[in-house]
Amino acid sequence: MIRAMGLLQSWGGFGTSIASFIFLWDMIRRYCPPELIRAFDKWARRIRSFFYPYIQISISEFMSNNLKPHDAYAAVEAYLSVHLAKDAKRLRAETVTGGSKLVLSMDEHERVTDEFCGVKVQWISGKLVQRESKYLPELERKYYKLMFHKKYRDMVTDIYLEQVIKAGKEIQMRNRKRKLYTNGHSKTTWSHIVFEHPATFGSLAMEVEKKQEIVDDLLMFRESKDFYARIGKAWKRGYLLYGPPGTGKSTMIAAMANLLDYDVYDLELTSVRDNTELRRLLAETTSKSIIVIEDIDCSLDLTGQRKKKPPEEKIEKTKKEVSRKDTEESGSRVTLSGLLNFIDGLWSACSGERIIVFTTNYVDKLDPALTRRGRMDKHIELSYCSFDGFKVLAKNYLRLDTHPIFESIEILMRETKIIPADVAENLMPSSLKEDAEKCLLKLVEALKQAKQLMIKKEEESALSEAKMKQAADVLQDKEDSIDKM
Ligand SMILES: Nc1ncnc2c1ncn2[C@@H]1O[C@H](COP(=O)(O)OP(=O)(O)OP(=O)(O)O)[C@@H](O)[C@H]1O
């Protein structure tokens, strides 16, 4: 009992001494000149760091000077959620925006250990609650603190942190929902929706070798960061896709985006007011993206003047005419030189990889300046459906590798031309009950009709040629008889 009382008394004495020390310390700080306090703090920090050999690095959720989210924080969070969150005892489960998958991250004040090249580092999660002024609500700022022994300072700051950020960004890239950006309807900025086009190179009707060549080219481009840096060129590649309507140009762009896991920027040139706006829109595009300008030949007159189209094209391209009208209303002034400047110049100022794709139905009409190699590195023709292409579609639409009707289809395909879009339409069962054979017969019928139409057209053109020749002969005869007179 006496011993217990003695213990209590000595604890009481200790408490009083601490309180007196705090009081004294407060007095000193209040009445001492600030220079003296600063010098004291400096020395105190030095002494503490001498006995306390750990370094701490904080990475906060928002930039310190504004409320912009900090990229590095998001990357660290992604890294920790995949590599270390499982070691934490208290976890936070959240869904990524627009996704249904739960992502786990460390809850506040959790601590996990990571090991890198035999060096152990600790990550601590925390939260600061701040109030900028008494009139503003409290702000929560989450942060991650990295703690390690000072003898590993260079290794952690130069190598480890860089690798964490890189790995985190890769994880973010994998988890993100890809986007399709558009600037249509006379908008001056990009708006986006989630990009969920199901097309793949596997589902594209095209000759196998040609398809493989394009896939190899794209994959090589994606892995060529060091190569482009070595040769001192911007990391970009231009593709020109050309061919009649309905041959799969848009489908191929979707397949490219899916293969590379890139976003798509569908640039509607007719909605862009002038070169300045074009430059701004393009500067806003992000890395790992495909910038698409469809129907480049008729989106705009690239010299800045309005363009007159021949009548037959007008009929074929009613849709594009409408968008051209929009241009006239919106007064677009994008010029060929503006576009070329951007292709050549702007890229070099943008970091990261980008692909630009132009599509056209009329490749011969394009200005050679636009399509020359270096600007458009790869020219890809998408043409009428081959038998190889048909087999891809039959496999996808009807799950058929072979069928006795295939032989007649092959013969008919050699004799006539049909676009993949028409083949696909015929192979699409019109009801759940419609079987594969019926679809194949529908296609045979369509091919026969296409063949008849082709023969008729050939006859008509032969006839008009004969008529023209006859007229020319009559004219020649007349001229000859005049000469004789
Ligand atoms: N090569 C192809 N492989 C698979 N499907 C195709 C192919 N070509 C066309 N299709 C089918 O036809 C439809 C129209 O094709 P798509 O829009 O890609 O053609 P396009 O060449 O871009 O036409 P346009 O020049 O009019 O823009 C697609 O939805 C797709 O189902």
From TrEMBL:
Residues 433-460 form a coiled coil. Residues 310-328 have a biased composition (Basic and acidic residues). Gene3D superfamilies: 6.10.280.40, P-loop containing nucleotide triphosphate hydrolases. GO terms for biological process: response to stress. Residues 305-328, 461-485 are annotated as: Disordered. Its cofactor is Mg(2+). Pfam families: AAA, AAA_assoc, AAA_lid_At3g28540. It catalyses: ATP + H2O = ADP + phosphate + H(+). The chain crosses the membrane at residues 7-28. GO terms for molecular function: ATP binding; ATP hydrolysis activity. This is AAA+ ATPase domain-containing protein. It comes from Solanum commersonii (Commerson's wild potato).
